[in-house]
Amino acid sequence: MCAVVFFMVSIAFNTGVRAASYPERTITLIVPYAPGGVTDLGARAFADALQRELKQTVVVVNKPGGGTTIGGNTIATAKPDGYTLGFLPTSASIPEVFTYFNEAPYTSKDLKPAARVLGPVLAITVKADSPYNSLKDLVEAGKKAKTMKMATHGKSTLGYLVLRTVGKAEKVNFTDVPFAGDSQIVPAILGGHVPVGTPAYPAIKSLVDAKQLKVLALCLEKRADFAPNVPTVAELGYKLAFVSYLGIFAPKDTPDDIVKKLSDAARKITSDADFRTKLNNMGTQVTYQDTAAFRKSISSYKENMAAFFKEEGLVK
What we know:
Layout: H1 2-21, E1 27-31, H2 38-54, E2 58-62, H3 69-76, E3 84-89, H4 90-93, E4 111-120, E5 123-127, H5 135-145, E6 147-152, H6 158-170, E7 173-178, H7 182-190, E8 196-197, H8 201-209, E9 213-218, E10 246-251, H9 256-271, H10 273-281, E11 284-289, H11 291-311
Parallel strand pairs: 1-2, 1-3, 6-7, 6-8
Antiparallel strand pairs: 3-10, 4-10, 4-11, 5-9
Helix pairs in contact: 2-9
């Protein structure tokens, strides 16, 4: 009996010491994209703040490729000690839903969500001289035309899902015209090659300010702090299977006390006015969720997305 009590006390003591001492050395934050994009910039802003909060160096390392699964697998196979973390999007954190597009050597079960930090914002966008001044206008035109081209980042992305969701609800056939990135989507809209597209907001902010483009709605659940006058798709009555997120992930066996310390740090960082302003200036929305709420969201998104892709015939 004494041995059992000693063992339990020892575990509790060691856990407390581990939580108190972490981190004792440099933390590596893996970003599954090349440098310079919204995710990379958001990760670097977060890393700078996390470094100050934890009083330890945080280094961002870019590991692009494999549709974000190379970076995701780096986390899944890392030592679960809290020193290799991922700043991961949906596709990297639940790769089993995206098997039609990319094969991954791991699943979401190999990762441990710590906290949701922010969300990239996609914008349903048209030319400034377009006759469409609202999503309703676009839908009505689509009904008359029977089919309407839409520029997206591809069938695995939120932009495709949103406009297909709107189209199904309104009986409009939005036909996907996939592009490699915003650098191609934006000229296609400006050139009149497609009537509507879903670029990321940071890619069009200056053009919106210059009145060359206009945004009909944002692909969000709640209005963005940086665009309070622009409605969201959700508030217009369309149920989204998921919204984009970027969150902190650790290997699956990372101790809970370390994960909690990371979640608490993320909460403090995302509550800071300067951090929120910095992210808003990037056209990115702070969407913090603690560990429990983030896991619940991921579970819901995983189920909803699997159903959506199945209905679209995008399941192997």
